[in-house]
Design goal:
By secondary structure, the protein is an alpha+beta fold. Helix content is 19%, strand content 31%. The protein has four helices and ten strands. The two termini are 39 Å apart.
Length: 166
């Protein structure tokens, strides 16, 4: 059976449902898939079976909405991997996906790319662009390091959600 014959996608809610009865648990109109959590990355996504293999629901949502599988990665703009509304999905490469990451659990400064450099007691601001790590500078004041980092985020087109707390 073709994917379009099995699944229906509601772009406003992000839900993928069954179009036809497949067996007792796959009933027409029921939401398809299950939640898979990756504790090491603190993320959860919906997965389901399509064409005999397990796929992430956001990729299938893209396929059902646009008629073609995405070539790149699918990024959840708001950072919620369970929110598969089409307005929350965008196709990106790995570099752009990295520009929309949450604040890491082990971050001690409260700001992505800013940390205290103990050997000289200064705040260092760093950023990555197209896979290359760049040291923006060393600063006496944390606020100056944060401002320098924010300015570079704008320059390198980082997403406004980058560094959000989860």
């Amino acid at each position: 059976m073709e994917i379009d014959d099995v699944y229906s996608y509601d772009a406003k809610t992000g839900y993928i449902t069954f179009k036809c009865n497949r067996h007792a648990r796959k009933v027409s109109g029921n939401v398809a898939g299950w939640i898979r959590t990756d504790p090491s990355r603190r993320t959860s996504y919906i997965e389901l079976r399509a064409d005999g293999k397990t796929v992430k629901a956001h990729r299938l949502a893209w396929r059902l909405h646009y008629g073609a599988w995405p070539e790149g990665m699918i990024d959840h703009i708001n950072g919620n991997g369970l929110d598969n509304r089409i307005e929350n999905l965008r196709e990106v490469d790995s570099f752009d996906s990295a520009k929309n990451k949450p604040l890491q659990k082990n971050n001690t400064s409260g700001v992505v790319g800013v940390r205290l450099y103990k050997p000289n007691g200064k705040w260092v601001a760093t950023i990555s662009n197209k896979g290359k790590k760049i040291t923006i500078g060393y600063f006496d004041k944390k606020d100056d390091a944060i401002k320098a980092r924010r300015d570079k985020e704008i320059e390198f087109s980082y997403h406004s959600n980058h560094g959000r707390k989860q």
